[in-house]
Amino acid sequence: MAKLIYSMITSLDGYAEAAEGGLGTGAEDPEVHTFVNDLFRPVGTYLYGRRMYETMVYWETALDEPGRPPHIAQYARDWQAAEKVVYSTTLDAVSSAKTRIERSFDPDAVRRLKDEADADLTVDGPNLAAQAIAAGLVDEYHLFITTSVVGGGKRFFPDGVRLDLELVEECAFATSGLIYARYRTR
């Protein structure tokens, strides 16, 4: 049985999306990007909402751009190799290979995906993750915490949820100040 992982960059005050723009620095750090590459290379399936998919579909053509650093090219290859499921009621078509659209988030279907998968899955984006968390589907939480406090936006963890987690790994990146923390559900 595969794990379902929820991972995002988050502000120091817990927002996965800031109300007024960026979450601060860190993700563009080559050391952080290489760490992310290594961490998520084994992922077999990405679960996205429409907005997150529209952000991530960049990786479908990233290899076409000349002069890409090796860590960017590697992430593009890994992303292209994985399956993608986009949950959307408004998206008419996808523009990446190995991608399908589902019109609604069905917890039982995701449970079956986890049961049948040989590789881990991720759920990306705070709205879709909130549904997976509410259904008790998320096995691990990977937070990349920036040095910024943004004061509002969409929270990494949805309101009204109580979770008891176990810290299983942490890493600090000196150049960017970003902190990685991996938690497992108890």
Automatic annotation (TrEMBL):
The keyword Oxidoreductase applies. Residues 3-172 form the Bacterial bifunctional deaminase-reductase C-terminal domain. GO terms for molecular function: dihydrofolate reductase activity. Keywords: Oxidoreductase. This is Dihydrofolate reductase (EC). InterPro entries: DHFR-like_dom_sf, RibDG_C, Riboflavin_Biosynth_HTPR. It comes from Streptomyces globisporus. Gene3D superfamilies: Dihydrofolate Reductase, subunit A (3.40.430.10). The keyword Oxidoreductase applies. It is an enzyme of class 1 (oxidoreductase). PANTHER family: 2,5-DIAMINO-6-RIBOSYLAMINO-4(3H)-PYRIMIDINONE 5'-PHOSPHATE REDUCTASE, DIHYDROFOLATE REDUCTASE FAMILY PROTEIN (AFU_ORTHOLOGUE AFUA_8G06820). SUPFAM superfamilies: Dihydrofolate reductase-like (SSF53597). Its EC number is 1.5.1.3.
